[in-house]
């Protein structure tokens, strides 16, 4: 899916936006895509994140530099600058970064100081006019940054890259606690469903965005992150959302400041990719029949235990279809690299599939040989999948992925859900059966193609998302 660049602005406008997010793939990627989309419209952008991402992001931006369009004869990257603050973590310290609670605590401890100092320095009286920050865009997980923006007299926007119903879920937290549906730590106390939108399925007690099965401490931290962001949704100048209006026509009306601006896609620009992509999978896809390949990826953080990893591998072999499987080195702590190598050789020997450590996902999903996407239902993966018209096979792991699964299967009807057995295992037979069912389900494929067409319309000139982003840029300079 390649969107037209006809709306790329040849003239810079008098606005300098500071974009902030957590140093994690699922947050860096959509905010970086937003940065370049704003640059298309003439906005100067500084992307500020933690130093532990520097090696990966600098490398990716260098790889993509030659593919970027030229504007008024000058280099495109001048409008997007990436700056890193010291965090005490190295990009190779994976063990410490895997401890989500400690990682978040460290980043949140050091980040506010550096955000405030950066703005102070940029906005000194002697600074050039175009260097001065005029607006802060904070990823929802760092919504607290808008306190700093407000204190310094700057406009502020919340950026949310999740399903449309999530805003409604967050706004209802005070009511959910008051009504005794959840307790003060986010734990469900009643099983009743909560209506989030007339266009989307009701929220069940298993679908809360802070749901981390078997990880009580992480659930508490996640709930506090979400709960603390709720007031900023109500008070920010804008709430920018990575979805498009047709996914939930009521979502833009939840708050007067809500603007749907998605789907945010890279289109060969830097996309905040913190992993090295194996491009050989694209030539492998070229050799497969149209609509035949099962693409499998659990994103940047999804993990499997040894038993489940083996069961998935056996399921992919059992189905007898070509597959492209993303297997990160840390996808399973118990699986030795030799096991991964064995799976890879066995797949290649039988020409059944290909295993890579990381894939250029947008290009993969846009490839005509891909027939379905077995996904963890992370929103970035989901919005890319539905924007390319690919039917989805849902295997959610944590957080908002459970509600995204509900939207995919019961709301938009563009996918099917894998069901675990009584031991909580997704068996090889379940995987094969659901893949077979998904690939022959004409109704789901038709719905997926319809959602793709609506995505294209939203991004086209005069489309809802294009107009909303143009409105945001116009209001920046008021």
UniProtKB/TrEMBL annotation:
The record's annotation in PROSITE patterns points to: UDPGT
Listed A to Z, the keywords are: Glycosyltransferase, Transferase
Tell whether Glycosyltransferase is among the UniProt keywords: yes
Protein family according to the UniProt entry:
Belongs to the UDP-glycosyltransferase family.
Q: Give the catalysed reaction(s), semicolon-separated.
A: an anthocyanidin + UDP-alpha-D-glucose + H(+) = an anthocyanidin 3-O-beta-D-glucoside + UDP
Report the InterPro entries cross-referenced here.
UDP_glucos_trans (IPR002213), UDP_glycos_trans_CS (IPR035595)
Q: Its Gene Ontology molecular function terms?
A: anthocyanidin 3-O-glucosyltransferase activity; quercetin 3-O-glucosyltransferase activity; quercetin 7-O-glucosyltransferase activity
Which EC class is this protein assigned?
A: transferase
A Pfam family of the record is: UDPGT
Record-listed E.C. numbers = 2.4.1.-
Keyword Glycosyltransferase carried by entry: yes
CDD domains registered for this protein in UniProt: GT1_Gtf-like (cd03784)
Q: In which pathway does it act?
A: Pigment biosynthesis; anthocyanin biosynthesis
Name of the protein in its database record: Glycosyltransferase
Domain of life, per the record?
A: Eukaryota
Gene3D superfamilies to which the protein is assigned, alphabetical: Glycogen Phosphorylase B (3.40.50.2000)
